[in-house]
Amino acid sequence: MKIKGLAILWLLLIGLIISHAGQSQISNKIYKAPIKTVYISQNTMNEMIVENLCIAFDRQGNANLLFDDLNLENTNYFLRIIHCQSDWKPSPLNEIEYLADFNDIPIRYPETSMGTKTPYKQYKISLPQLKISGNYIAMVYANRNKRDTVITKRFSIYQNEINIGSKISFAKSNLLRSTHQFIDLNLGYPSTYLINSDENLKIEVRKNNQSKNVLAKIPKPMIQAMERKLTYQFYDQENAIPGGNEFRLIDLRSTQQRLNFVGQINTLDRYTEISIQPEQAQGNYSYVQRPDLNGAFVIANYENPDNSLQADYVWCTFILKSRKFEDEKIYVNGAFNSYELTYFNELQYDEAKGAYLGRILLKQGIYNYQFTSSNPLNNNLEGNHAETENQYEILVYFKKPGERFDSLIGYQKIQFPL
Questions:
Q1: CATH classification code of 248-373
Q2: Could you point out which of 21, 281, 298, 353 has its C-alpha 20 to 30 Å from the C-alpha of 176?
């Protein structure tokens, strides 16, 4: 009886652990090294690929999840869609409440790369039709085992049920005028909405397609019930956003000729190595305007632009000429790695060359990137400039009365400066 009681207690404990784990925030992540170049696309040919795609509710049907498998084994992959709250934790909804069809869809008929030194299989599957707005996770798992997770990828479905009035401007205070940008916000809601407070309302402001909410604190709004309007007054510069700097760029589309910012190409039998031109930390330099992709990337092959399956994988070496930053780690990041700071994109300091070096396997294309320190106070690598061209996204979530989930009721994209 003691053994049976202990077994029941153990099962209950395991259940609690699984239940608690199921409520954790789900991020963009690749769980297996042979899986590369994961993205959700609405147009796979020469398209800028961002970290988190927002899709209009009435424009569903042409979004696809794509990824490459360099392992070349005959693995059975399945797609599972998970509905999440505004904080990217799983919602309490059952699948039938947000899916028009069945979940756990097999991903069949991968295509094989053509003429590449690094062979791979490219998997592609259409995202299923969804019945409600909000945040979603496209989860890929292997061999019918949901615990064998391979990929988790975020995307959102929005309906513009409210009017978002937002404006980006240069910072107004003398202290921040040269380094920060300000955002002003107000919301107009329809008469069908009963909003007496903002407790069920969440606003998220993202910059350059990143996941981070750049407004850590949003004050209580002034509710003008007669005009059906919410106005946000910022009295303590809570709406100040560091301007950052333009993204750096490397053009890896060709293994035969040096394109933009390519330093050297070393063609070997089994793979190709490409080194960027050595870069400098630019935090102490004046702002220089240059076009970028706001952190995004494009998959393309210069010699064969009409067939993405001929895009090869190359080893790209990033070089940052700099003094050594003590007690700090330096990374290279962008949408291509979901802006994560991991050992896969960490740079190592070479004393002889006086530079940080990092070697990353990337699919041919054009990539935006920046250098980032583990010390958030280190602004020497990129710097902050109020003139920097940035793209902002405003997302408004609302838990409607009687509902158990956060709807994405408003979405707006702003380019600054215009």
A1: 2.60.40
A2: 281
Band of residue 418 on the pLDDT scale cut at 50, 70, 90:
confident
pTM attached to this predicted model:
0.91
> How far is the C-alpha of 237 from the C-alpha of 234, rounded, in Å?
6
Mean pLDDT across 253-272: 96
Distance CA 223, CA 193 (A): 13
Burial class (CB in 10 A: 0-12, 13-18, 19+), 17: exposed
Distance between CA 364 and CA 255 in Å, rounded?
9
Using the predicted structure, report yes or no on whether residue 19 has a pLDDT greater than 90. Answer: no
Tokens of 246: 């333009």
Total residues found in the chain within this entry? 418
**pLDDT per residue as tens digits for the range 94-109:** 999 999 999 999 999 9
- What's the CA gap between 238 and 260, in Å, rounded? 39
What kind of architecture, by CATH, is found in domain 23-158? Sandwich (2.60)
End-to-end CA distance of the chain: 74
CATH of domain 163-243+387-416: 2.60.40
Q: Is the pLDDT of residue 31 over 80?
A: yes
CA distance 335 to 366: 12
Please give the Cα distance from 99 to 85 (Å, whole number): 16
What is the DSSP secondary-structure string of 82-133?
EEE-TTSSBPS--HHHHBSS-SSEEE--PEEPSS-SS--EEEEEEPPPBSS-
Rg of the chain (C-alpha set): 23
| Type and span of the H or E element at 315 | strand 313-321
- In 10 A of CB 270, how many CB atoms? 6
SS3 20: helix
pLDDT above 60 for 266: yes
SS3 of residue 356 by DSSP: strand
Do 163-243+387-416 and 248-373 agree at the fold level?
Answer: yes
Residue of 301, 299, 297, 298 whose CA lies nearest to 254: 301
* pLDDT score of 264 more than 50: yes
SS3 343: helix
Mean pLDDT of 11-20: 40
**Is the pLDDT at 353 greater than 70, yes or no?**
yes
Q: Where are the domains of the chain?
A: 23-158, 163-243+387-416, 248-373
What's the rounded Cα separation, in Å, for the pair 316 and 274? 5
